[in-house]
Structures are given as C-alpha cells and as structure tokens.
C-alpha cells in the first residue's frame, strides 16, 4: 500500500500541475489580423546594429526587411535619413511600399541641420512613393527642443517640399501646444496606452478615446496614428503588463477597430530593436511584430494562447518534479500520505516556478551581460531549489512521520551489569561556585560505577581553580581534579588529556560542560543503550535553566529549542545526529579507535560524531532533558557562540568533503550524507545571501545614479528572495507551534533571535572558507549585561547594513518610475533583506535591558520524559 502511494500521489499532483498550465493557457478568440495593414514603423536594425553608435544596417539587410513586409502593409514610416536609411524610399518602391519619410530632431543643433539637408537631398530624388514627411519624433516629449525651435524646423521643411509635413508626439503634447498644430499639415499622434499604465483590456478603448479627443479639439486637421502598439516583454507599468499574449490581443483588437473606422495608422513596430535596451530600458526592445531574427512573435489569425509551448513546459515541470521526488521518496516509508502529498505539492510548485522563471528569462535577447547574469542566476537557483527542498523535507518529516523508526527504549539493567563510566568536565576560567553546582549534580547521580574528571586548562588565577580542586577532594575519590597550564588544543586538548587519565576499566566516556547540572537518572537511563555493540554515541539535548532571568534569555531559549526538538529528531531517524559537546556519551573503545578528539577543530564534538559515522558506528538521540546549563548573558556572547558553531561547520565540511560526497570510501549512508550537507545548508545560504546583499546595494546605487540606464533586476528573479523568506518564516512558525508547542510569542521570539544571527553566520561561512585559524571562544556565563551603547556597538555592522537597505529602498522609490511594479518589488526586496539586520539591533538592545521580564516571551516546557514502561520509547511533552 505504501509503495503504491509513492506512485499515486506524484501522479495526482502531476495531473494537477498540467491542469494548472492548461487553465492558464486557455485559447481566447480575437479578431484576425488584416490581410494588409496600413503601415509599420520601420527601423531595420539587426541585432548587431546600433544607430546611437553609428552602426547602421546594410542596404541588403534593409531590402530584405522591406521584402518581408511586401504585401502585408501599404506603407512604412521611417525616423531618420542618416546613413543607409536614406535609401529606404528607393528600395521600398521596388516592393510596392509607400513611405512616410522621417528626419530625426534631437538636442544637437548641428546634427539637426545636417539631417534636414539629408532630408532635402532624399526628397530631391523624386521617389513617388514618399507620401508625407515627418520632422522629429517626440522631440518635445523628450525636451530635446522647445516648441518655437521645432516650429522653425517644420517651416523650413515645408518650404522645400510640396508633400504634407508634420511632427509626431503623444496625444497630450498636441493638446498642450495648439500653436504647434498651426505649423503642420496633419497631426501625427502616438497612442501607446502601455506607457500610461492602462490594462490591456481597456487599452483599445482608451486609445480610441484619445484619438477622438484630438479630433474634437482640432476638427479641421487630418490625423494619422504615427505609432500604436504594445510590448511583448519588459517591465510591468502599473496595470499594463507586457507579454506576447497582450501584444497580440491589443494589436488584433485595435486593427479591427481601425479598419472599421478607416484610420491611417502605423503599427509600432515592424521589428524588435535590441539596441534600444541601452537608451529606453528593456521594454524599448520588444515592440516589434517580428523579432530580431525576423520571425513573427505571435499568431495572426489563430486563437491566442498565453504560452504557445505550454505543453512542453508543463511536461518539463512534471519531469523535473518527478526527479526531485524520486530523491525525496527514497527513504520515506514511515511518512504518512499527508507528508508525501505535501512534498509532492511543494516539489511540483518549485519545479513549475523554476521552469517558468527560466522560460521568462530566456525570452529576452541574450547579450554577454545577460548571459553571465543568467548563468549566475542558474547556479543560485539550483542552490535555492536544494535549500527549499531540504526545508520542505524537514517540514514533512517533523509533522507527518507515522512512527519513529529508531526508538530509544528504557531498559532496566542490574547494577552489576552496568558499565563503568568516566565523566569528563572540561573547564577554563569558570567561576568556582558555578562549577561546584555542577559537581554537586554529578555527586547525586543514581549510578553505581562512575568517576568524574575535572580538567582545568590554562586558567591563570589560582583563586579560580584551587577552590574547585579542594572541593573535588571533599567529594571523595570518585572526583579527580587536574590543572594543566599550558595545554594546547583548547577544549579538545583538555578532553584528550582527560582520556589519558581515565580509569582503564571505563567503558563509556561522558562529557558535560562546566555549567551543567545533570539529573540523577542521566546515566542509569542512557548508558544501557551501549548494550548494542554498534552504538558509539548516546546524546541527550542541551537545555538551559536560566531562561526565566530576562526576556533576552527567554528568546535564546526559544531559539535553541527548535534545533533539539526538530532537527535532531529528524536526523536521528537516519543515524545522522550532530554530536554536541555536552550531555554526550561515547563508547571508550571507539573513541580510542578514532584517535580521540580532533584538536585542529573548534567544534570537536560535531567532528568526532562525523568520524564515528564514517567508521560505521551508530548514534542515538533522545529528546529528553537530563541536564541543564546556562545561556550566554549578552547578545555579543550569543553571536560569538553561533559564530564558532558555524565556523566549525565550514571547517568540518572542508575537511570531510570527500567522504560526504562519496569521493573517498567511508561507511556513511546516503541519509547521513544528506543530513550533514542539507543540515548546514541554511547556514551556507546565509553566507551567499551576504553576497546577494552587497550586489543588491550596488545595483540600487546604480539605479539611483543612472536611472535612465539601470532598471530593477528582472522581476521574476527579484521575487525569489521574497518567496524564500516567506517560506522559511512560515515553516519556522508552523513547526514551532505544532512540534515545539511554542506560543505565538515564543515562536516570534525564536524567529527574531534566529534572524538576528544571520549576519554572524554569513561572516562565519566566509571566515571558515578563508582561514582555519580561529581561536576557541568560551561562552562566558554570569557576565554583566552590556549597556545600551555597548549593545549598539556590538551590532554596529548590522545597524549599518539595515540603514543602508532602508536608505537604498527610499532612494529607489524616489525615481521617476517608482510607480512601476518592478521598482516597487525591488524596494520591497531591499526592505525584506534589512529585516535580519534590524533584528540584530533589536535583540542587542533587548539583551542590554536585563530588567525586561522573561514573561514577555513566556516559559517553555522542559524536554522531560513522561513516565514510560520498560522497553518503550521515551517521549517528551512537546514531541
């Protein structure tokens, strides 16, 4: 039954995916394209041409373009007579095409004079297919010339030609300057409702109304429509969305009305113009009926479909989804139907989104710059997909496992059969009273055979370590104290020293931090697990006893709890837990077999666990509290602790990458490799997010400094960080409420504390990649809280980043095109990217205010085992 579900659910979700593609691509009937239209705006630039750089098409290229339009249009309209474009009238005559001949008017007066001289020369050739003359194109709109100056140019041309003369401007310019109308023989109006943000379904009526407004205002002047069209790609402008579908709909609807009303019009435009991207932005490129390769961009008579090749894209989405599911379903026998359905739904959604984004991105013309950006986006996109799938997999396993596959039964074992345990307590410069509390807890252990070794390494002040030494003597022969100075290797060095001093009869080594107070049943409950000869590690969670001191520590408690309630539980299912250096037990002979603790690594605990897995041993995790320690007192110490953990993770991955990737033979299973890579993937995502943030700020600066040339990043790509942030936050809140049984306040506090560490983790990622010489940092306990200014100083980097993002978002919204949707989305991305940095500032300030009550967050339940019968799986109240 379970195997059949693995096929039924993906098939159902695949059908749902295909149905979604089908529903979004229902054909719509539109008026057919006329057999022959009035005219095209004609700029015969090829992909490599650029008139702004004086690179013009050859006469052969121009002639080929005119031949393509022959029979499909009565006329073409040109914009300049510069270079080879002066030959358009002569070449068009051979293809039975009339010409509205244009002369370009710009800011350069010398160029304007030369252009008008060239115009006069072309007109002097006497080409009878030239039917009218256009002096300037939107020169007033661009503010290249003043109205009186343009009037002078118009009058000058009207003196040397008998042909009707005009200039071309949008409708509102003609209404604003009636004096201009007096110097033209006809009005040439541009009707481009896209630029005015009009939705496509209202655009034709809008254009006709503007035409009629001009007609009513100037009833005695003939009117032609010099440009009318819609872009097939580019930036969304308020309600106006550029797309091939909307271009088709607008043009076919308008042409039907224009033919019925007998308008003279020129469709904007015949061919796409890649060169315009530099001067008009991305949208300026995509107004052509034909693309830059001279292929039609849409159907002229058939029903309109949003994505003509949607079937192929839907199939690709399904294939990609199936491949991802094959990986995720490899080890899902204990997952319920809901969990598998959730994974299938997320997987197909991700694959469909990925296919759509790639399709959407590749619709633009590729330049070296866009190709490089596309390659970088593809690499980043693969990372995003892997991250989302890992997060979704943890989500599904946390909620919808039908049963735990690796139970941890409690066993009653006679005292004479229990192995001897050596408990190691490494200490460095710890307050004597704190350490005495730890020793009192160990002295109260309900276990017959154990010793306690306290290893104080490198503490300089005798007043710190000597009272502990004396207290060990008071507790009896089970307690042995060692003060070693100097001793290299940090905590790992101390533990290796203790291992050499361990009683030869000890079969199990247990390690706790110097601030942990253990419960009496710790050893009695957990040591029997070593009856399985393959078990090398038995791990209990870290828990804390000072969460009620203030709001900051209550936040930290909530943040810590997620890992031990969620990540470690799911990891245990595949024998892939992260060993941590307190509340852990290791089989003595396996510890000796792998040469003890690694003194090169500052996270020696996690590294040891991985080495033991590579050697083929097992580890067991039970999510029940058997000991509680102390949390960092300040945000600064909280950050340093997490920096050490993240830095150590990078060094471990670099040291063991061959084993993790299967390049070097080891006993690691696929599940173990998955968890060790995927488990640390969110931290690496934070690292790459820092690169994204620098790029985002740099791009925003360019947008502000060069608004005419730099537009927001591609909108579908810019949406990815927003989607990723929402997905991760939703997952975190949902799992905290359901599995950690946290309150809404606790869930929010945990999320805030986690976000506050994002920048620290990102720095640790790069620090670990660059150098392997970070010193060990002991997290101070019972330290004095930082003052407010000190807290702000500790979070100064984050504060600067947060300010930079808000400043960038504000400046971006001051652009003239701030009404554009892509600008607003980009500003939203900048604001969202600032949230982790602002969270750091907020948490730093909270840590400085020790008087803030922990009740603001609320107490969390202990991870304490409920009463269980012998041989049953201990469970917690929350798990």
Automatic annotation (TrEMBL):
<keyword id="KW-0808">Transferase</keyword>
<feature type="domain" description="Glycosyltransferase 2-like">
    <location>
        <begin position="509"/>
        <end position="708"/>
    </location>
</feature>
<feature type="transmembrane region" description="Helical">
    <location>
        <begin position="341"/>
        <end position="359"/>
    </location>
</feature>
<keyword id="KW-1133">Transmembrane helix</keyword>
<dbReference type="InterPro" id="IPR029044">
    <property type="entry name" value="Nucleotide-diphossugar_trans"/>
</dbReference>
<dbReference type="InterPro" id="IPR050321">
    <property type="entry name" value="Glycosyltr_2/OpgH_subfam"/>
</dbReference>
<keyword id="KW-0378">Hydrolase</keyword>
<feature type="transmembrane region" description="Helical">
    <location>
        <begin position="826"/>
        <end position="848"/>
    </location>
</feature>
<feature type="transmembrane region" description="Helical">
    <location>
        <begin position="716"/>
        <end position="736"/>
    </location>
</feature>
<dbReference type="Pfam" id="PF13632">
    <property type="entry name" value="Glyco_trans_2_3"/>
</dbReference>
<feature type="transmembrane region" description="Helical">
    <location>
        <begin position="748"/>
        <end position="770"/>
    </location>
</feature>
<feature type="transmembrane region" description="Helical">
    <location>
        <begin position="365"/>
        <end position="390"/>
    </location>
</feature>
<feature type="transmembrane region" description="Helical">
    <location>
        <begin position="7"/>
        <end position="24"/>
    </location>
</feature>
<dbReference type="InterPro" id="IPR017853">
    <property type="entry name" value="GH"/>
</dbReference>
<dbReference type="InterPro" id="IPR001173">
    <property type="entry name" value="Glyco_trans_2-like"/>
</dbReference>
<comment type="pathway">
    <text>Glycan metabolism.</text>
</comment>
<keyword id="KW-0812">Transmembrane</keyword>
<keyword id="KW-0328">Glycosyltransferase</keyword>
<dbReference type="GO" id="GO:0016757">
    <property type="term" value="F:glycosyltransferase activity"/>
</dbReference>
<feature type="transmembrane region" description="Helical">
    <location>
        <begin position="690"/>
        <end position="710"/>
    </location>
</feature>
<dbReference type="InterPro" id="IPR000490">
    <property type="entry name" value="Glyco_hydro_17"/>
</dbReference>
<protein>
    <submittedName>
        <fullName>Glycosyltransferase</fullName>
        <ecNumber>2.4.-.-</ecNumber>
    </submittedName>
</protein>
<keyword id="KW-0472">Membrane</keyword>
<feature type="transmembrane region" description="Helical">
    <location>
        <begin position="313"/>
        <end position="329"/>
    </location>
</feature>
